[in-house]
Every structure is written in structure tokens, then in C-alpha cells.
Design brief:
By secondary structure, the protein is an alpha+beta fold. The protein contains 16 helices and 14 strands.
Length: about 550
């Protein structure tokens, strides 16, 4: 038996005279795959990556603790982030016999951890999403167990060959011929039962999937009715007339709602069309958050890191790992990984300026918040590049200019959508009833349409709350479908086609099969291609512009 041999020699030995395509004949008259060196390269790179990860973990464990307060705070934050039971009553005790008052005096959280035997299909530990996820896992396991049980019963009552057909191996050419002939006849004889099993399994799976989706919806509705969340106090308003940011639109809507509905309004959130100045506004918000979360100046941090480097002579591997960590943990890298926004060449240069201590300056009215902004224009000095979203914005294109946020926000226009928050859930319901009975709320000559909010505040994609007509929305969906189809074709050519070619060219004579290592590598390659397809589908769903993350996930 010679792998890949198409024609053997007549000398009575296991020598090959001619090999199949994809193989070459070596000096020992054996057929060797032409892709063997590729597998060795892939295995070598994988082995080096594993060694690098292990060395990095060991390096982290051996580093001295330079910030014990930060380490303690990080461990405490991780502990508080764990899923725990609600606070217990005073008469209850924890596992160590301490009461709630004793725990409070010691500065400890008055909460218990969930038991390991908690039924996550019935107990809401982390919200409705986790509850539905574990119910889905149980449904998948149950479906697989039932399908396997039906197959076993069919083998028991029809023919036991269902359990071993295609699984036996041959060790000699004679055994292989016998196995192929017997398998061919057995497969023809049992084909009608296999087809019937597949048809029934498909129909039952479809019915089961529909029933399970209905049950999941009911579980979500039951779980949602048990808790009052932010959206239960909020209504969605559509048809708000177009205004600019220098008008007090939120205040006007609040007054109009209170007068028309007779209920106290806590606040109003208007959806603004800031697509044109998106980069500026998000940059200001990010800088403000950065300064609030990092009160220590960057220069002081640099001096601390310099002192650490002087105190400890860092080895070569430590310097390499430190450089890798700085690259991976850099804000630019994190935004790209988390799809915070798309980066142009100029934006990457600006992020690099910020890394070296250059902050964005904002002039809010007459108040100076931070240092002046440094905007690096294109090479020709003509100003800010158009792909940054700053074209036609109040931001000047000079190298050293401040941003007048009053002007930026004053020229911004709303999108026609707003959210009104009431004091109680009953007040929200009463307001909706009044609006339905009156046919809407009159506001600045137009009729506002009110309905209960279907989304939570953290699931609203505010940047997508723009006014897009049906033609524009349909064009986005159509272009997204075209992009997915092109990506699917690329996936088939670059990832699946090499696998199919290898499987077709492989010599299956005498019962040979591809090596498990090669099958595993192909599996990893195809899985990587699938991950790229997920990324493409996610980007298409993002660019479609749904105003809520829930609808974006449905599209995805």
C-alpha cells in the first residue's frame, strides 16, 4: 500500500512507478505530497506562537508588582463584577455565619455567590439573555440526543449495519475490495430508510425550531414583566420638526408634553444628526472621559515608567513583551479591535500625537478646558482631509486651532426622533393613552406620534438616528447583500476551494484517509475564513444604520 501511487512497479516490492497529481516520486520510489513542507511550516509557526504565549505568561508572573494599590483595586473590581445574589435580609447569614450588619461594618458586600447547582434555565442570574442562552443550549443537546436515539432505534429494528457502515477499515487490498463491495450493496439496500430518516429529521427540526423560538419569546416577555427597566418609563416620539442645536428643543418638548399629557416629565433626549461632525464630537467625548479617568498627566506617567526602567534592568524578552503590550493596549488598536470607528491615515497620525501627550482642546463658550488641539492636515497643507468627516464643519484646518463646540452644536439639526422619560411607569402608560385618544400631540404646528419605547437606552445607536428615506435604506440593504455575496465568493475561492481540491486529489485507494493533523489544519483555516465572514456580516449590519442594536443583531 503506497499513498498517492497510481501505478506500482513489477519488482514485487512496495515501489511506485507513477504517482497521482499532487505527489512526487522520491529516491525510495515512494510518493510524497507536494504540500508536506507547507504543513511543516504551519506546524512550526503554530509551535512558535504557543512558545511565545507561554513565555509571555511566565514573564508576567515573574515581574515585580509596581502598583500594589492598582492591583488591589483591579482585583476588587473583578470581584464586584461577578454575578452574585441580591442582598439578603438581616436575619440571614453567609457561609461563615456573618450577618448583614457585620458584613456592612467590615466594608464587605452583603451578597452571596450563586451555588454551582443553580438551574440556569429557570433562574435569571445574569438577565434574560443568559436565561435564553442556556435554554437554547438545552434545546440543542436535547435535539441531538433525540436524533441519535431515533437512529439507534432504526438500526435496532431495521438493520444493525446503520451503526458500522462507513466506519470499518481495511488492512490489505483484498479486505479493501471486500469492504467496498459489501458497503456498496448495503448502502443501496438501506438508502430508502436513510432518505426517510433525513426527511423526517428535517421536518421535525423545523417544527421544533419554530416552537422553541416561540417559547424563547414567551420566556423573554415573562422575564421582562418581572422587572422595570429604563424603557418602561420612556416613550418614543416621532415626527419632531427640524430645529438647530442653538434652540432649546429638549425644554420645549418637555413643556409641551407636560401640558398636553398632564404627567410629570423627568427629561427628554433628542436624537441629533451629528454624522457630519461625528469625529469631532466623539473625539471631544473621548478626551473628556480620558482626562476624568486618568487624572495623572502623561508626562508624570512617563517619568514613573522611566524610574521603573532605571530601577530594574529589563531583559530582552521583557522589552519585547512590553512593546507588544503597548501596541495591543494602545487606544488606536483597541478602537480598531472593538470597531469603535473607521480610521483614516490622518486619524492614525492624530492618535499617535495623543499618545505622546498632545490633547484635544475644546472651547466651550468662554471656558478653556484643555490645551489647544493640534490637527495635522494632509501633506499638501490644504487642510483637513475629507475622509475625516470634518469637511464643511466649523473646525478650522489650520495646524493649531481650537474647536468652538458652541458653534458645532449650535448648527447641528435633529432627526425627528426623541425619547421622553416619565417619573413612573404608570405615568408613561397614562401618557400613551391620552396621546392615542387625542390622535397625537401638537408641537410647533406638527403632530407628534407617541409609542412605548421598545429599546433600552444603552441599545440605542444614537449616531444612526438620522433621517433616511426608504430608497436610501433599501440601497444600503441591497449593497450589503452584494458585499456579503462577494465575500461569500471570496471565502469559497480562498478558503474552501483549497480544502475541496485537496480532498479530491487525495488518494483514497486501499482505504487511505488524510492525516488528522492535515484535517485539523484545514479545519482551522476554514474556521478562520468563517470568522472573516462574521466580521463582514457585522460590518454590513453596522453600515445599514439601524437605530437600535437589537435590529442590528437581527440583520446580522
Amino acid at each position: 500500500l503506497i499513498d498517492g501511487c497510481m501505478k506500482c512497479t513489477d519488482d514485487g516490492l512496495d515501489h511506485c512507478a507513477e504517482c497521482f497529481g499532487g505527489y512526487f516520486l522520491n529516491r525510495k520510489s515512494k510518493c510524497v505530497s507536494k504540500t508536506t513542507f507547507v504543513w511543516w511550516i504551519i506546524l512550526g509557526i503554530s509551535f512558535l506562537l504557543v512558545l511565545l504565549i507561554l513565555a509571555w505568561i511566565a514573564n508576567l508572573a515573574l515581574r515585580p508588582v509596581e502598583n500594589p494599590e492598582g492591583l488591589e483595586e483591579g482585583l476588587s473590581l473583578r470581584s464586584r463584577s461577578k454575578l452574585q445574589k441580591p442582598k439578603w435580609m438581616e436575619h440571614e447569614k453567609d457561609d461563615l455565619g456573618r450577618r448583614a450588619s457585620e458584613m456592612s461594618d467590615q466594608g464587605l458586600a452583603m451578597r452571596r455567590s450563586w451555588e454551582l447547582d443553580t438551574n440556569l434555565t429557570k433562574t435569571s442570574v445574569g438577565g434574560a439573555g443568559m436565561l435564553l442562552h442556556f435554554n437554547f443550549q438545552v434545546a440543542v443537546i436535547g435535539w441531538a440526543v433525540v436524533a441519535a436515539a431515533v437512529w439507534a432505534l432504526m438500526a435496532l429494528y431495521v438493520d444493525m449495519s446503520f451503526l458500522w457502515i462507513g466506519l470499518r477499515s481495511a488492512h490489505t487490498p483484498h479486505d479493501h475490495c471486500v469492504l467496498v463491495a459489501d458497503g456498496y450493496e448495503t448502502q443501496r439496500r438501506l438508502m430508502k430508510y436513510k432518505v426517510a430518516f433525513i426527511v423526517v429529521l428535517y421536518l421535525c427540526s423545523f417544527i421544533f425550531a419554530v416552537a422553541h423560538s416561540i417559547r424563547q419569546l414567551r420566556l423573554f416577555q415573562i422575564e421582562d414583566s418581572k422587572h422595570s427597566t429604563h424603557k418602561d418609563f420612556c416613550i418614543e416620539v416621532n415626527g419632531v420638526p427640524e430645529c438647530t442645536g442653538d434652540q432649546h428643543l429638549e425644554k420645549d418638548i418637555k413643556v409641551a408634553m407636560q401640558e398636553a399629557l398632564g404627567q410629570r416629565v423627568v427629561g427628554v433626549s433628542v436624537c441629533w444628526n451629528f454624522e457630519k461632525d461625528k469625529w469631532v464630537i466623539m473625539r471631544v467625548i473621548e478626551d473628556d472621559l480620558y482626562e476624568r479617568e486618568n487624572p495623572v498627566p502623561l508626562k508624570q506617567l512617563d517619568s514613573v515608567s522611566t524610574g521603573v526602567r532605571r530601577r530594574y534592568r529589563l531583559g530582552f524578552m521583557t522589552r519585547v513583551f512590553a512593546w507588544m503590550e503597548r501596541v495591543f493596549l494602545h487606544p488606536t488598536t483597541q478602537r480598531i479591535i472593538t470597531k469603535g470607528r473607521n480610521f483614516s491615515r490622518t486619524e492614525l497620525r492624530r492618535a499617535n500625537l495623543r499618545r505622546h501627550g498632545v490633547h484635544l482642546g475644546v472651547r466651550a463658550g468662554t471656558r478653556q478646558i484643555t490645551k489647544p488641539v493640534i490637527y495635522e492636515g494632509p501633506e499638501d497643507g490644504s487642510g483637513v482631509e475629507s475622509d475625516t468627516g470634518l469637511k464643511d464643519s466649523p473646525v478650522k484646518s489650520d495646524q493649531n486651532m481650537e474647536i468652538d463646540m458652541d458653534e458645532v452644536l449650535g448648527k447641528m439639526k435633529n432627526t425627528g426622533k426623541a425619547f421622553v422619560v416619565f417619573d413612573t411607569e404608570a405615568a408613561r402608560d397614562a401618557a400613551i393613552r391620552v396621546a392615542e385618544e387625542s390622535g397625537g400631540i401638537q408641537f410647533k404646528g406638527v403632530t407628534l406620534n407617541l409609542k412605548a419605547s421598545e429599546v433600552e437606552p444603552d441599545s440605542v445607536a444614537w449616531q444612526n438616528c438620522v433621517t433616511i428615506d426608504r430608497v436610501g435604506r433599501a440601497w444600503r440593504v441591497f449593497s450589503g447583500i452584494i458585499i456579503v455575496l462577494i465575500a461569500q465568493l471570496t471565502w469559497g475561492l480562498l478558503f474552501y476551494l483549497p480544502y475541496a481540491y485537496y480532498e479530491l486529489k487525495f488518494d483514497y485507494n486501499y482505504g487511505q484517509e488524510p492525516k488528522r493533523s492535515q484535517q485539523m489544519i484545514f479545519t482551522i483555516i476554514i474556521a478562520f475564513g468563517n470568522a472573516l465572514m462574521y466580521i463582514v456580516c457585522g460590518e454590513v449590519a453596522d453600515r445599514t444604520g439601524f437605530y437600535s442594536i437589537d435590529r442590528r443583531e437581527v440583520c446580522y
